[in-house]
Amino acid sequence: MSFWRNKKVVVTGGRGFIGSHLVDRLLNEGATVRIVDLGSRSHPRKVAPELLARAEYRKADLCDPQSWNKVCRGRCFFPMR
Fold first, then answer.
1. What tens digit of pLDDT does each residue of 31-77 get?
2. Domain limits of the chain?
3. DSSP string of the chain?
4. Distance in angstroms between the alpha carbons of the first and the last residue of the chain
5. Which of 9, 54, 64, 66 makes the best surface tag, with the fewest CB within 10 Å?
6. Is the model's pTM score more than 0.85?
7. Whole-number pLDDT of residue 4
8. CA-to-CA distance for 72 and 36, rounded, in angstroms?
9. Which of these CATH numbers, 1.10.287.3610, 3.90.1310.10, 3.30.450.40, 3.40.50.720, describes 8-79?
């Protein structure tokens, strides 16, 4: 049994090279993954389609504590940026 099974995880930078591989691995281990992009030019289209089909995509601004708290509440956190 995987440690990550049924864990809720947030990965910032999940559309990048390392982040996308981390997202894929966590999904394969049974985690529920939320990909968060903090940039102003973010678009879910830039996330690999096979990851979007299995993970949730959210846009959040690190400078906005309320937005950030909503995205991360109750989840493990992997900052990739």
1. 999 988 765 555 556 667 888 889 998 888 777 888 878 888 888 77
2. 8-79
3. --TTTT-EEEEETTTSHHHHHHHHHHHHTT-EEEEEE-STT--GGGS-HHHHTTSEEEE--TT-HHHHHHHHTTSEEEE--
4. 30
5. 66
6. no
7. 92
8. 9
9. 3.40.50.720
For the CA atoms of 47, 53, 55, 57, the dihedral, rounded to the nearest 10 degrees, stands at 50
- With tokens 């389609």, the residue in question is 49
Q: Do 38 and 79 touch, CB atoms closer than 8 A?
A: no
User: What tokens were used for 17?
Assistant: 């090279």
